[in-house]
Design a protein that fits this description.
This is Cytochrome c domain-containing protein. Keywords: Electron transport, Heme, Iron, Membrane, Metal-binding, Signal, Transmembrane, Transmembrane helix, Transport. This protein is an all-alpha fold and 437 residues long. Among the domains are: 39-142, Orthogonal Bundle (Cytochrome Bc1 Complex, Chain D, domain 2), CATH 1.10.760; 279-305 and 340-435, no CATH class. It is built from 21 helices and no strands. Helix 1 packs antiparallel against helix 9 (171-212). The termini are far apart. Bound molecules: heme C (6 copies). One heme C binds at residues 264, 346-347, 349-350, 385-386, 389-390, 393, 430-432, 434-436.
């Protein structure tokens, strides 16, 4: 029967649509997987990704103040470091490099001398933690240096250019690139679907027009040909209402969640300052210590912003004629403080103490504030979210050496958790009351 033919034309097109849809989505997934797998040698993509992600956090929290992947910072560029050294060597180097130098390991001594006898700190990491860092380095090494999606070189891009931009030194940038890619695939998919539907309607129209011209139709065929597409039936249909309602709710919820999580997160915030003061010039080029200006950062909760008098220690002599320096003079003459715009700002509900981290925890400023010594204009490098604080507390080994107070605690911890490091959180650093009163 002819109606059967029309029906089979419809089902053929639906089949084609379905086929294209599955083909496209598996294509998209395949591409994603191959992006994710870039630079990984063995194992499943998901397992390795998790390891490399853990390694990335460890690297950012402990190594990025001195190392980048693609360029020398304080220590050497770590691109392809596993091709330069064997794994056991790397593990013992990262755990205790000065011991290796003392023992006279040839590679270690050569490296130590090459870098002006600077000591790399020791890290009480487990083998797994070190391997995860190396996995991350390996993965980041494989990524092309120019790609902003590479979190490690993204940060150092700022250093190279000596420019001010928040150089994508965030993990979000990596996720963003993959997300954007997926968006393109989805848009293409939707366009294809629309084109297919239009073609389908045109064909159906032509076919029923043709049938209508014929005389020898039976009852069912006539009914089919005369059938009008009834929109009111569609939107009155319970199923359609439920589906549309669901989609709408999901979209609204998604937007709301994004909003609430985004509130207060100001990563990358870079206000213009009243005087063109450059950290790249002062802390970078002229190597003025951070605590020359931020005098309280090792002693108290807050790091102070220097008063104009500190600037005058030098600028009563240097660059007196510069219009920017004149602004400092004017502030002093008028007895008005310079109105620097605050960059970092935790909500009052959270307690953060600088000296606890810089003096006691021995964490470098750059671990939290990024490569300040390369910034012409300061920007907020870290997210400063609760998750960020807690992640670091989970992962950073507590420096317990030479402190009798910890001896018993560490012993108990080691009995209970074989091989796991004694971290800030092992000592209660993730208890709510430590950061919220
Ligand atoms: C305070 C600065 C500093 C920190 C933090 C630091 N390193 Fe280093 N690293 C150095 C220096 C300096 C060297 C060069 C050797 C030397 O002078 O001891 C070096 C050398 C290395 C090397 C040998 C590189 C080569 O090209 O042969 C590796 C690997 C390495 N570091 C890994 C790490 C890892 C992993 C971390 C984080 C867990 C880390 N470093 C943290 C300063 C640092
Ligand atoms: C010559 C004085 C001077 C030196 C040296 C200096 N700073 Fe600053 N710093 C300032 C001034 C002035 C501001 C306020 C203006 C601005 O944000 O650029 C500031 C702002 C900052 C801020 C942002 C504060 C906010 O508003 O949230 C951070 C973070 C910071 N400095 C870290 C550092 C670190 C880390 C170093 C060492 C690598 C350093 N500074 C060295 C003078 C200095
Ligand atoms: C320890 C010395 C020292 C201190 C303290 C210091 N500066 Fe400077 N500053 C310098 C030097 C050196 C230069 C570079 C001069 C040059 O390029 O010839 C400079 C350059 C500048 C310039 C660029 C001037 C121009 O037109 O090129 C500005 C603006 C500036 N400083 C602001 C400040 C402010 C604001 C403070 C206080 C928060 C400050 N400086 C504290 C040493 C200092
Ligand atoms: C463990 C992470 C961490 C380290 C390490 C760290 N800071 Fe901060 N810094 C922060 C946070 C978080 C804030 C925001 C504090 C707030 O808003 O109360 C901040 C704020 C600041 C400010 C703005 C003034 C203030 O206290 O709010 C300055 C200046 C500053 N830091 C300088 C430094 C310098 C210099 C060093 C190194 C000697 C350093 N920081 C080390 C996390 C850190
Ligand atoms: C880069 C890693 C790092 C980040 C990021 C960090 N911390 Fe810490 N924090 C430490 C270390 C290490 C210690 C332990 C210092 C010590 O006592 O040796 C510590 C200790 C503390 C303590 C004391 C805990 C105790 O057991 O007494 C508090 C409170 C704290 N941090 C709050 C914060 C807050 C709030 C933030 C986020 C705004 C933050 N920290 C971000 C590394 C970090
Ligand atoms: C290491 C420090 C730290 C610990 C431990 C910690 N918080 Fe927080 N918390 C923060 C910081 C910093 C903020 C503010 C940052 C932000 O708004 O994202 C915050 C924000 C919050 C907020 C407000 C969120 C908002 O959007 O305004 C709540 C609620 C909260 N914490 C509850 C808790 C509870 C419950 C615990 C214990 C399970 C806890 N926190 C443990 C550091 C901590």
């Amino acid at each position: 029967m002819i109606s059967c033919k029309i029906k089979s034309t419809y089902s053929f097109f639906f089949f084609l649509l379905f086929f294209l849809f599955t083909a496209f989505s598996s294509f998209a997934q395949g591409e994603q997987a191959s992006i994710a797998q870039d630079g990984l040698t063995a194992g499943t993509a998901t397992g390795d990704d998790a390891v490399a992600a853990a390694g990335e956090t460890l690297f950012k929290n402990n190594c990025s103040s001195c190392h980048a992947i693609g360029e020398k910072v304080v220590g050497p560029a770590l691109r392809d470091v596993q091709k330069r050294h064997k794994l056991p060597w790397l593990i013992s180097w990262i755990r205790n490099s000065s011991q290796m130098v003392q023992k006279g390991d040839k590679e270690a001594v050569a490296l130590f001398n090459e870098y002006d006898k600077q000591q790399m700190p020791s890290f009480a990491f487990s083998d797994d933690q070190i391997t995860s860092i190396l996995k991350y380095i390996e993965k980041a090494s494989a990524a092309p240096a120019a790609l902003p999606a590479d979190p490690a070189t993204g940060g150092s891009g700022v250093a190279q250019g000596g420019t001010d931009g928040p150089g994508g030194g965030t993990a979000a940038a990596g996720a963003g690139a993959a997300g954007k890619y997926l968006d393109y695939v989805l848009i293409a998919l939707i366009v294809v679907l629309i084109v297919m539907v239009i073609t389908l309607l045109i064909i159906a129209n032509i076919l029923s027009g043709y049938l209508r011209g014929k005389k020898d139709l039976d009852g069912r065929d006539i009914e089919l040909v005369d059938q009008r597409f009834d929109f009111s039936k569609v939107y009155k249909s319970r199923a359609v209402q439920v589906i549309v309602g669901l989609i709408f709710t999901v979209i609204v919820l998604d937007a709301a969640i994004e909003e609430t999580y985004g509130v207060g997160i100001q990563q990358g915030y870079q206000p213009t300052q009243p005087i063109a003061f450059s950290h790249a010039q002062h802390a970078g080029q002229h190597e003025i210590n951070c605590n020359y200006c931020h005098t309280s950062v090792y002693k108290s909760k807050n790091a102070n912003i220097p008063s104009a008098n500190i600037c005058m220690n030098c600028h009563s002599q240097i660059k007196k004629e510069s219009p920017e320096i004149q602004k400092i003079y004017r502030a002093i003459e008028n007895n008005k403080p310079i109105e620097w715009v605050r960059v970092h700002n935790l909500p009052d509900l959270a307690y953060f103490n600088h000296s606890q981290h810089t003096q006691v925890g021995k964490i470098e400023c750059q671990t939290c504030h990024g490569p300040i010594q390369t910034m012409n204009v300061v920007y907020q490098y870290s997210p400063l979210t609760m998750g960020w604080c807690i992640n670091c507390h989970r992962e950073t080994p507590l420096n317990t050496e030479g402190n009798k107070y910890y001896d018993n605690l560490v012993k108990l911890h080691d009995q209970a958790n074989k091989g796991a490091a004694f971290t800030v959180s092992s000592n209660g650093g993730t208890e709510c009351s430590k950061c919220h009163y």
